Every structure is written in structure tokens, then in C-alpha cells.
Amino acid sequence: MFQSRRPSARNFSVAVYLYQPGDGGLDRVAILLANHLLRRGVPVELWMTRTDGACAHLIDPALAIRQVPTLGGTRRLSMIAQFPALATMVRRHRPDILYSAGNQSNMLVALATLGTATQAVSRISNPIVRPGQHGPAAWMRLKRFRAIARLSDLTIVMGEHDRALLAQSGDARLLPRPTVTRAMEQACSGRAPRRPGDPWRLLMVGRLAGQKDQAMALTALSQLRHHDWRLTIAGQGPLRADLERQCAALGIADRVDFAGFVCDPDRLAALMGQTDLLLQPSRWEGLCATLIEAMACGADVVATDSTPNIRPLLAAGGQHPVTPVGDAGAFARAIERSMTRPAPATMRAVAIRDHGVDRALDRYLRAFEGLAGSRV
């Protein structure tokens, strides 16, 4: 039966499925959600394939954890292979809601709950159709997402664009991303104004992989040598050596610091609180938590058009409009313009208001309450 290590104040239970506590945004959101439900008196468990990872330290020690057996292999193959085990766990422990952390596990969770009283909640963590994707590939991707949404009892999306795409495919609900912490608010209130003559403090945060396209941003910055800037890259991944070589070839290695993965949220907030401008050159994203985090810490943002979901956020925050994906020249011009025309602090604050961690997670809780109530 479903176990809880704290007295229950709610009449429904939740199991949060997360493959492992890795270094991605979806991993952090899933853990924050499980911790929050526990604090709010919901019987909740964290179901994981692996319990080790960069965000493991964020898990509340009082949170019950179950390990989902698998046969191994790559993450995708491992998740496919563990379907029988997850379906068995659903029938044995009978959670009222099984929550999927993100795109890769949405189909697995939806299928595992078929024929049971457990309701599946899927979360869209990356674009339904990626920027620049057309033809049969885009059509097949959209059909797959719509099929999963029809199998799920609730699909959580991160933007109006995604909700419109799933409008005829079941209950698709836009909920804010639980991102802004107290440490970020403190970093914003305690930040020192930039003094004339100081170098511009730039930051990139994200896995060093092709999706994040740090290489394009470095090319753009090489066009801005006439400005005094320093860049910190927070993240780890397979392209680090390539990016370091690129910095040397572009003649900007002395201006770029590779800080590695920053796993401590408070340290990341402090880093953003010292930043003038966050650069987000991604090829595709779902919403991109780092944009919200940087604005919460008082920094401005330059971003590519990695998803339609970020356009309203940037406009509300007084930020430069998105630039075309992969266009280093446009990205460089946007950086230069943002240096000379910072956004009003009040606009940034209004844009990210609903993304406070507790405020946003309470929206998740109310959605779960409504889902459980509808089943009753």
C-alpha cells in the first residue's frame, strides 16, 4: 500500500515518476513538487529508476522513495523496458495520481495507468514542435504528443502555444513554472548597480550540448570585442573541450570562465545576482527556467526564438525580442542593444511573479485536488 512518512492532511496520494535526479530543469521541478506535496500533507512518493544524480541532494529526507526496476541500457531503452515493472507498481501501490516529470516519460506513465483507478498527469518539458521543424517529422511529433495527451488525464503545458496545439486532445492546462526561490529574490534585492567602466558581466547556464548552442553565442561575442565583457558558462557536458578550443580560436579565451555544473541553487542565485545579462542561445526549449531565474535575480536576457512560449514572458519583462535560432549576427546585435537599454526592474518583477516556487506549486496542488475530486 501507499506509504507516507508524515501525517496525511489530504485524501488523495501522488507518485512522482522521475528517471533519476539529474542536472536538468525537469528533474529539479519534479523533486520540488514532491517536496512541496509532502509539506502540504499529501501522501507522496518519488519513484525513480536511479537514485544518484546532480540534484539528489534536493530531495527531502522525509520523502518516501521507491526504485523502479529496469533492464539497463540507454535512458530511452531503459524506460521502455521498465513498462511492466511500472505497471505492476501502479497496481500494487495504487496512487491516485502518477505524475510524469517530462516528455520522455509521458507515454510510459500514461500507458502504465491504463485500466487502473490511477490518473496520469503528463508534463510537457520541451517544445511539441521544435523551431524550424516542418513536414512529416513535425506532423509525426505533433500526432505523438496529441496521442499521449488523450491517454493522460491531465497534461501540464508551459505556454499558450502548446495549450493551443493540444486543445482538442484532452485536458491541457497552462501552469506556471515553479522556479523563483527566496534566494533569487534576495539576490535581486542585494545586487549592486553596475558602475561605469566595469566590464559587462555575462552568463550562460545549461548543459554543454548541441541543443543549448553555446557555440553560436561565442561566435556572436567575438563580434563584440570593442565592448568590455566577461562571460561565465555554468554547465557541464560533452562539448566542453570543443567550446574551450573555440574560445581560443576566436581570441576570447581570456574573457570566458567555464564554471562547471552549479548544483547548489543558492550559489546559482548568487551568480545570477552578479550578472548583467543572461545569454540563452538554445535551438529549442520548453520554456527555459534560466530565463525566469535570471530575471528574478535582476538580470536582463537575450534569447533565441527557441520556443513561442518565451515570447510573452520576454515582452512582459521589457526584454529584447527573440532572435532567429543560429543567427550569431542578430544575437550580437541584441546583446549590444541590451547593454545600452536595460529593462525597468518593475517590468521584470511583474513578468516572473507567478513563477515563485510555492505559488506555482500550489497551483499544481490545486490541479491535483481537482483531478482527484473529479474521479470521486
In words, what does this structure look like?
By secondary structure, the chain is of the alpha/beta class. The protein has 15 helices and 12 strands. It has helices at residues 25-39, 75-81, 83-93, 103-112, 135-151, 160-165, 182-189, 214-222, 240-250, 265-273, 289-296, 311-316, 328-340, 345-352, 357-375, and strands at 14-18, 44-48, 64-67, 97-100, 119-123, 154-157, 172-174, 200-205, 229-234, 256-260, 277-280, 300-303. The strands form 2 sheets. A 7-stranded parallel beta sheet has the order 3-2-1-4-5-6-7, sandwiched between helices. It has a 5-stranded parallel beta sheet with strand order 10-9-8-11-12, sandwiched between helices. α9 (240-250) links the parallel β9 and β10. The two termini are 19 Å apart.
H/E element order: EHEEHHEHEHEHEHEHEHEHEHEHHHH
Looking at the structure, what is the overall shape?
A: globular
Number of helices: 15
Write down how many β-strands occur, each being a DSSP E stretch of 2 or more residues. Answer: 12
Rounded mean pLDDT is 92
Biggest sheet details: 7 strands, parallel
**Strand order in the sheet with the most strands:** 3-2-1-4-5-6-7
How much helix is in the residues? 40-55%
Q: What percentage of amino acids are in beta strands?
A: 5-15%
Derived from helix and strand composition plus strand pairing, the structural class reads alpha/beta
Q: Report Rg.
A: 21 Å
**Unreliable runs:** none
Distance between the termini: 19 Å
